[in-house]
Amino acid sequence: MKKVLLSFLILFSCGSTVKESGSPRLIKASSPNQPYWILKKKATDDNYYFVGISKKNKNLQEARKSAIDDAVSRLLEFIGFRVTTKFESKKEYNDIEEGTVFRENIIQSIEGKASASVATEIEDVYYEEYTDGYVFYVMIKSPVKWVENERKRLKQLVLSQREESTRLLNEAKKFYEAGEVVKAIDNALSAFEISERAEENSDIYLDSKDFISQVLSSLRISLNNNPSFVYREGGSDDIEIVVKTTKNYKPVKGLLVAYECNDSGALITAKKGFQTDENGVLNFNIEKVSLNNEIEINFYFSLKRFEKVNKIDEEFYNDIKKYSDLLKLKLKLKVTDKFKAIPSAVVLIDVENEKNRFFPKFQEEVTGKLANKGFQVKAIDISKIFKENDSSDSLRDKILKFVAKDYKELKNLILIYRNHNYLGELGKDIKFTEYDLGASEIKIYEIQTSISIINIATKETERGYKFSVKGQGLNKPQAIDMADKNFLDKLDEFFN
């Protein structure tokens, strides 16, 4: 006898038949005539009989496997397993005497109807060989007593699964009404997984899918602040996102959020993990970047919670992915130097003949130059500070106090001192030993500049710069205008 051990794993899949051109010819058959049981079902009081037919296959053993799978599928359909399932079988063969007997372990992992073992026999086999492959027929039998007992067991199991999935779905709806969105999703997913196991519970299965879609479509991911910059030195503006549901506009607690970034070298961290807190909030920071101009980050609800769905219903999983894509929060951040991104006050003081002077119009022009270079700046009018008689504080300290009090949104002070110096006429006041220019009538004007970037809170100077420019003209006003132009050009070049 030949004993065959088969394990049948029921999977979601569908086979396809390959059609060959031409008219195939019968070469030979395993017996002169087709057995009667191919067309007329056999029946006895002790056994149920099932016939399986293979798809045409060029390999005889594969054709045999296909026929056995088909016969067992008919047995399982008869017992009560889902009609739409398909088999993948694993076999171990042992040759013993004459005939063929096999024991099969039927495992229904997808429908979750547990497992059972039964001794069945291959009652008869028949095959035909054609020019394009083999067609195999097999008849198996299974004890009536076992089949009926299995039917009763499955009926009770399906009923208990229905009760459990119904309870979970009802709880999910209550959670959703109460604003407990994540609990609602988790319960609905459990109901989805359990109800999917039996065709008899397909109504709950479909209701669970609809409810999950409803909950996911109600999610909204938005910014809770206005981040603009990521810094070349490391770090970024705080990124605070909030997740709410349109069901009642309550925050969504405990939702796992993921992100994707166009900068593969970026390091993005979450301050308190990647799940939203009780206020539906998540805080992110970008520790480093490799791009120089701009990065893009998309935040979306994580698909990790739905991995089982992909194994059960790939089409539904793709729908969930579409929701996730549709609800993405898209954020663009400019890559810049940190000191440029910090909101700063700009104060420009001109020093002539040891006297401080303030020219608001020119300060505005300088502020515009800095803004064009990426600075977040605001020109500050300090006219009233010049009118104060109190001299207990230095001008620097007076300006810092004034900005700290009246411009709390500004964190740095860009303090620019320009010392003016008229050098005189070239050739007359400015002479060269190598040659005599005579009376050139060309006037020379110099501006020596110092720039300090000061932290308003600590009053510490964090950066300092110095440079000098000259201007020339046929008269002093022309020379001053040229020096101012050169100053602006130098400023433009300095912070390029």
Structure in words:
The chain has helices at residues 60-79, 144-177, 181-195, 202-217, 307-312, 314-326, 338-341, 360-372, 383-387, 395-406, 476-494, and strands at residues 2-11, 26-29, 47-53, 86-95, 100-107, 115-130, 133-143, 219-223, 229-231, 239-245, 257-261, 267-270, 281-288, 294-301, 329-336, 344-352, 355-357, 377-379, 412-425, 443-455, 461-473. It is an alpha+beta fold. A hairpin with a 2-residue loop joins strand 6 and strand 7 (133-143).
Based on helices, strands and strand pairing, what is the structural class? alpha+beta
- What is the name of the CATH topology of the largest domain? Rossmann fold
Number of strands: 21
State the fourth-level CATH superfamily of the largest domain: ABC-type transport auxiliary lipoprotein component
The poorly predicted ranges are: 1-20, 83-116
Short description:
Helix content is 32%, strand content 34%. It is an alpha+beta fold. The strands form four sheets. Strands 1, 2, 3, 4, 5, 6 and 7 form a seven-stranded mixed sheet that branches. Strands 16, 17, 18, 19, 20 and 21 form a six-stranded mixed sheet that branches.
